[in-house]
Amino acid sequence: MAHTSMTAKKTGAKKNSKRLTSQARRNLSENEVESRAVVDAFDGFIYRCSKDLKLEYMNRKLVESAGCDGVGMPCHKVLYGLDEVCPWCANDRVFSGQSVRMEIRNPRDGRWYYVVNTPVRHADGSISKQGMAIDITEQKTAREALHRAENFYRTTVNSLEEWLHVADRNLKILYANKSMTEAYGGLGGRMPLIGRKIQEAFPFLPDWVLKEYEQVFSTGKVLITQEKLQVAGQERMTETRKVPVVENGRVVRVMTVIQDVTERHRNEMQRGLAMDRMEILLKLHQMGQAGTKEILDYALEGAVKITRSRIGYLALVNKDETVLTMHSWSREAMAECAIRDKPMVFEVAKTGLWGEAVRQRRPIITNDYKSENSSKKRYPKGHVSMNRYMNIPIFDGTRMVALAGVGNKAENYDEGDVNQLTLLMNGMWQILQRRKAEEALRDEKERLAVTLVSIGDGVITTDCQGRIVMLNRMAERLTGWTQAEAAGRLLTDIFHIVDEETRQPCPDPILHVLELGKTTGVSGDILLLAKDGSSRAIEDSGAPIRDEKGGIIGVVLVFRDITEKRKAEEELLRADKLESIGLLAGGIAHDFNNILTVIMGNLSVAMLGLDSKSKIAAQLGQAERASRAAKDLTEQLLTFSKGGAPVRRTLMLADLIHDAVGFALRGSSVHCEYQLADDLWTVHVDPSQIGRVINNLALNAVQAMPRGGVLVVVGDNLVLDVSNQLPLSSGPYVHLSFRDTGGGIASENFGAIFDPFFTTKKEGSGLGLSIAYSIMIRHDGYITAEPAPGGGAIFHLYIPASGLVAEDEKTGKPGLIRGSGRVLVMDDEEYVRDVACCMLETLGYESVCVKDGRAAVETFEKARTEGSPFDVVILDLTVPGGMGGREALDLILAIDPAAVVVASSGYSHDAAMADFAACGFKARLPKPYTIVEAGEMLRELFRKTPNKQGGA
Predict the structure, then answer these.
(1) Which residues, in sequence order, are bridge partners of residue 536?
(2) How many CB atoms are located within 10 Å of the residue 836 CB?
(3) pLDDT tens for residues 699-723?
(4) Contact 859, 875 (CB under 8 A)
(5) 163 burial via Cβ count (<10 Å: 0-12, 13-18, 19+)
(6) Tens digit of pLDDT for each residue in 266-313?
(7) What's the sign of the alpha-carbon dihedral 864, 866, 871, 872?
(8) In terms of Cα–Cα distance, which of 785, 767, 769, 770 is closest to 726?
(9) How many other CB atoms are there within 10 angstroms of residue 861's CB atom?
(10) DSSP string for residues in 257-287
(11) Residue 717 to residue 891: CA distance in whole angstroms
């Protein structure tokens, strides 16, 4: 029975236990649901991570923010987007049992979070880091804004010129701004201001002032009073405002603001005088057609009035501020002055106080005129007696233009008088300047009308509907319409513009300007079709015409004929092409001439002493002739380069024309007719280059007439005036024309015939005419071409006339001229140095060769020091990477100003080869040269410098 009872009890206990366990599980499940609901509703992030920084839990909001469920991933990667451990990581402290709070700016989204990290111990004894993060960006921003506002408030209050302090209900000073603290020292304060009671800090205040504080505390109303205070020994008028500070409906503090209003009182006293001044200026504005003297006299009487003076004067100042010219005296001054012949002009340096304002360029006040003053001079007998005096300079910008003075005021002059007089006189001067500007504007309008009539641009103005208001004379000429015919018509009726290529009408420029509201131009190439059907290439631009308020009331259209401008641009483009080729050609010619110098020099030496009839002499002679032909080729290349400057002589052209044309026509079936004026003017040219131009034109004619024909060469004198259509200055020219009877030049090729490498011939190089063009430009002349009536072509040359007598030409072939002396040769090429020394030694000279300018200077100076100076120095102008001839020349002449130095080059950007004397050289030896040419140069050089050695 007992056993049964125990069994029953155990059974019942088990049932109760199961029931309780089931209930606990239900309760636990409900708690988890409630906890999870609370966590999900939490307005922030909740997470848990292990000691190895792996996430164990993330609430729903954090999952949504991170964009993924990062459980098992590194916390720094999921929470902050960092690849490394966070620099603010608190794991060590949290897992040691601490709770850590911090503010963090999340680099993933840039927002601020308040983060709490605490250790969480689990049932199995393990620990995790529990984290909660709340977005505090707005709160932090607000706190920072509040902090900035407080700083701004304090900065603003401390920057106020007014004195400010705040006191509590016990009248204890809680705060004082910088101005108040500084003023407290001027009021005699010695102890700190803040923390003291008002009656202790300011013991001189009467009792009624303290009662005013009681009134503000009791009524809560602003109280404004005025008091006089002694500040730093000066009496100042102050205005005090006592302002209640209310909290929860009760006045807890009073802010006192004290403002120095001394100047305001002074200004109020000046207000009446200012009104007088304004009335005077108004009268001056209304004086209409009054003369300048009348205006100045009235202004001077007004100056005496507003400064409460008895006398006054006005003087003009010259530009350098050294002379005063008296313009007028006030009526009282004229009545009291007993001087008969009153001077009108005063030198500032000799004046006393009158000139002090000019010398110092500022107002001068003298309130005790009779006292001793170093700047004062005794005024003449009969002058108005003075007791007080003030004068001011009057400026127009920075320039002093006049001087105004007043005197004998009943009381002292002060800054208020200076201000009143300065404002009046400045206003008067502005009125005068405005009148001058109005007169100038009237004159300008008249000049504008004349200008519009005479300028070279067409001008058309329209209203906003595009109807013509005005055409100037050039617009009438270009459009073919007169002002009377065009007035009131639409612009599109008279201003027909089309695209130059397509011939399609261009948009109305007026509509374009009105649409954009700013200055515009028509893009592309356009043609203006005139009333008579003719067309011109033009440029145009339009701009809105605005009224005083900025509104558009019309459009002005400006256009010009650019036909000649286009021609000039084509010439410039051609010149650019030639210059580009010149850079290449010059370099080639330089190197080629160095090579030719070696070849021709060695050939000329090798031929010495040979029997002229021997086979070797004939072969060497043939090689020398081929070298000279190569030299001619380099001269053509040099024509393109800057180094091909003309080596000019004054000569008559007739013989040069016959020789060059005859040489070109030799062996052809072309006959030449010469029509050269007997009195052709002389020209100052390079015969070789001009001969090449003539030869090229003659060769062109021969090639244009393969079956024979006639070439007519005409030469006459021509004077061009300023209106000529060529890109040439006015003056005298020799004009040559070359007319052939060939097939002519196709019209589409006329614009390119002078371009480098342009040719229509199968075997032509395209350089002949471009070389001719380059040579003519270098001679300040010009070359043109045109179709010849009836067929063929005509080329025109314009060569500036010199007006000088032609120079005698040397005749005969020079022989070998030997001599003696020491010659220093500088050249950067070794083989050039070798052949130069060989030629000089063959001629009988002792030679030394060096490779650059620095070595030449050192060798020259050493030889002079050792007593064996050089008689001649030959310098190569161009030394790549080293000192060239020009620089070496300066250093050699510094050592010996009488040194004889020769310029030598195959090409140079320098003008030394064309005008060697102007550059300091005594002669030139162009490369390539032969032994005969070198001997001739040295003979001429020693002939001009007989104190040297040399050949006979």
Answers:
(1) 528
(2) 28
(3) 888 888 888 899 999 999 999 988 7
(4) no
(5) buried
(6) 666 666 566 766 777 677 666 756 777 787 888 888 888 888 888 888
(7) negative
(8) 785
(9) 16
(10) EEEE-HHHHHHHHHHHHHHHHHHHHHHHHTT
(11) 47
Q: Alpha carbon 40 to chain centroid distance?
A: 66
Q: Please state the three-class secondary structure of 188-222 as a single string.
A: CCCCCCCCCEHHHHCCCCCHHHHHHHHHHHHHCCC
Chain mean position to CA 501: 37
pLDDT in tens, 125-163: 889 999 988 888 888 887 887 777 667 767 777 777 788
Closest to 414 in 3D by CA, of 259, 273, 260, 239? 273
Tell which residue, 366, 410, 430, 431, has the closest CA to residue 392: 366
How deeply is 153 buried, as exposed, middle or buried, from its count of CB atoms within 10 A (0-12, 13-18, 19+)? exposed
- Choice among 43-57, 306-320, 419-433, 809-823 with the minimum mean pLDDT: 809-823
H/E stretch holding 141: helix 137-159
Contacts of 371 (CB under 8 A, 6+ apart): none
Residue 64 half-sphere exposure, CB side, CA atoms within 13 Å? 7
pLDDT tens for 474-529 read: 888 888 999 889 889 998 888 888 887 788 888 888 888 888 888 777 655 788 88
In whole angstroms, give the CA distance from residue 62 to residue 115: 13
For tokens 């001079």, name the residue.
377
| Integer Cα distance of 190 and 575 in angstroms | 87
Q: Is it the case that residue 633 has pLDDT exceeding 60?
A: no
Q: What's the mean pLDDT in 196-220?
A: 86
Phi, psi of 38 (to 5 degrees): -65, -45
- For the residues of 481-504, what is the DSSP string, one character each? --HHHHTTSBHHHH-EEEETTT-P
Whole-angstrom distance, CA of residue 672 vs CA of residue 659: 12
Burial class (CB in 10 A: 0-12, 13-18, 19+), 763: exposed
DSSP string over 363-419: -EEES-TTS--TT--PPPTTPPP-S-EEEEEEEETTEEEEEEEEE--SS---HHHHH
pLDDT score of 571 more than 70: no
Nearest in space to 274 (alpha carbons), one of 416, 405, 409 = 416
Q: Scanning the structure block, which residue is given the tokens 């109005």?
A: 438
Residue range 871-891: mean pLDDT, rounded: 89
Determine the Cα–Cα distance for residues 537 and 526; give it in Å rounded to an integer: 6
CB 367 within 8 A of CB 388: yes
**Residues 135, 121: Cα–Cα separation, whole Å:** 26
- Among 206, 200, 208, which Cα is nearest to 229's? 206
Tell the residue number behind the tokens 């009134």, with chain if given: 215
Please check whether residue 884 is in contact with residue 835, taking contact to mean a CB–CB distance below 8 angstroms.
no
Q: What is the DSSP letter of 33?
A: H
> Which one, of 119, 131, 108, 135, lies nearest residue 55 by Cα?
131
Report whether the peptide linkage leading into residue 800 is cis, meaning its omega lies within 30 degrees of zero. Answer: no
By the 8 A CB rule, do 934 and 838 touch? no
Give which of 104, 134, 128 is closest to 42, Cα–Cα. Answer: 134
Given a cut of 50, whether residue 952 has pLDDT beyond it is no
DSSP H/E element including 520? strand 520-521
Phi, psi for 52 (deg, rounded to 5): -90, 20
Instruction: Read off the tokens for 743.
Output: 């097939």
CA 471/CA 486 separation, integer angstroms: 8
Q: What is the Cα–Cα distance from 534 to 536, expressed in whole angstroms?
A: 7
Check the CA dihedral 473-479-480-484 and report its sign.
negative
Question: φ, ψ for residue 365 (rounded to 5)?
Answer: -115, 130
Distance of alpha carbon 747 from alpha carbon 31, whole angstroms: 104
